[in-house]
Design a protein that fits this description.
The radius of gyration is 20 Å and the shape is elongated. It contains seven helices and no strands. Helix content is about 75%, strand content about 0%. It has one domain (about 1-160). Keywords: Membrane, Transmembrane, Transmembrane helix.
C-alpha cells in the first residue's frame, strides 16, 4: 500500500507541474516579457547592460527550478520503482533537460546583453548569435516533452491496470 501511495503522491505533483510549468509556463513568461511598457530598456553604458543581464539571473534560476519539478518526480519514481529500461530513459530526460537549461540561459542572458533602445553594440557580435538558440531549444524540448510524458504515464499507471489493458479481452 505504501508504494501505491508514493506513486499516487508523485503523480499528484508530476502531472500538474508538467502541465502548468512546461506547457503553460513558457506562454506566461512570454506574455510577461512582452507586456511591459518597454520591451527593450534604454541602456546607455556597458555597466547598465551587465546590471540588466545579471539582474535576470535570479529569475532564470527560479524558472529552471520550477521546470525541474517533473524531472525530479521522474528521478524519484525511478528510485522507488527501479526498471533498467526506464532508468535509461530517465537519464536521457535529465541530459535533455540540462541541455535546455544551458541553451535557455544562454539565450535569455545573451538577448539581454544585445537589447538596447539605441542599437548600440557594447559587446561582441557573437552574442547576437544567441537569437538562434530558441530553435535549438525547440529541438531539445520536443523529445524531452514526449519522453517525460510517456515516462510519467508509465510510472503513474498502476501495474494491475496496465496488465489488464495489455491482455486481450476474453
Amino acid at each position: 500500500m505504501t508504494t501505491l501511495a508514493a506513486r499516487a503522491l508523485l503523480a499528484v505533483v508530476f502531472w500538474p507541474s508538467l502541465f502548468f510549468f512546461w506547457f503553460l509556463g513558457p506562454f506566461v513568461f512570454f506574455l510577461l516579457s512582452t507586456t511591459s511598457s518597454e520591451v527593450c530598456m534604454r541602456l546607455e553604458t556597458r555597466a547598465e547592460f551587465l546590471a540588466a543581464a545579471n539582474g535576470a539571473v535570479p529569475m532564470l534560476a527560479l524558472q529552471n527550478l520550477l521546470y525541474a519539478v517533473p524531472i525530479i518526480c521522474l528521478v524519484l519514481w525511478g528510485r522507488l520503482f527501479p526498471d533498467p529500461a526506464r532508468a535509461r530513459h530517465i537519464v536521457t530526460c535529465v541530459k535533455l533537460f540540462a541541455g535546455t537549461v544551458v541553451v535557455g540561459a544562454l539565450w535569455e542572458y545573451g538577448s539581454s546583453l544585445i537589447c538596447d533602445g539605441h542599437g548600440q553594440g557594447f559587446f561582441s557580435p557573437a552574442w547576437q548569435m544567441t537569437s538562434y538558440l530558441p530553435i535549438v531549444s525547440l529541438l531539445l524540448n520536443a523529445p524531452l516533452y514526449v519522453l517525460a510524458f510517456s515516462l510519467g504515464r508509465a510510472f503513474s499507471t498502476r501495474e494491475d491496470v496496465a496488465e489488464d489493458e495489455a491482455s486481450p479481452p476474453a
